Amino acid sequence: MHQITTLNYILAKINVAYYINKCEICKRTKYERHLPEISLKLIEQVDKPFQQINMDLFTIEGTTFLTVIEAFTKLAQAHQVSSKNAIQICDKLLIFFQHYGVPEKMTFDSGLEFQNDTVKKLLETQNIKAHFATPRHP
């Protein structure tokens, strides 16, 4: 009895798949359920400490933190910020620069808290190259 039930299930599944693959309306309205794979790219290697730092914001239990990760040594820090605005970001960056020096390059995500005139002017005055990463693709 179990074999008959299993066979009926398999045949029904094959019939449904066959019908959906032949149906023109189904073909037009069907969407891909798997995300397209994004090809990986090599990230530039750094030669010395504090040549490049990577930054991002994250919130946990209502508290927002600015994370700073140095690319060579992997030194990581989290600085609490009261809001996600350019002034807070620049204040924390200046404190970081006072302790460790000014990097050559900084990588951010594409958030508006990083892509604005205030942060841009700070980076220009310190002669820092900015790299804005796309989601899931540094």
From TrEMBL:
InterPro entries reported in the protein's UniProt record: Integrase_cat-core (IPR001584), Retrovirus_Pol_polyprotein (IPR050951), RNaseH-like_sf (IPR012337), RNaseH_sf (IPR036397)
Record-annotated Integrase catalytic domain positions: 45-138
Pfam families xref list: rve
Domain of life: Eukaryota
UniProt-listed GO biological process terms: DNA integration
GO molecular function list: nucleic acid binding
Protein's UniProt name: Integrase catalytic domain-containing protein
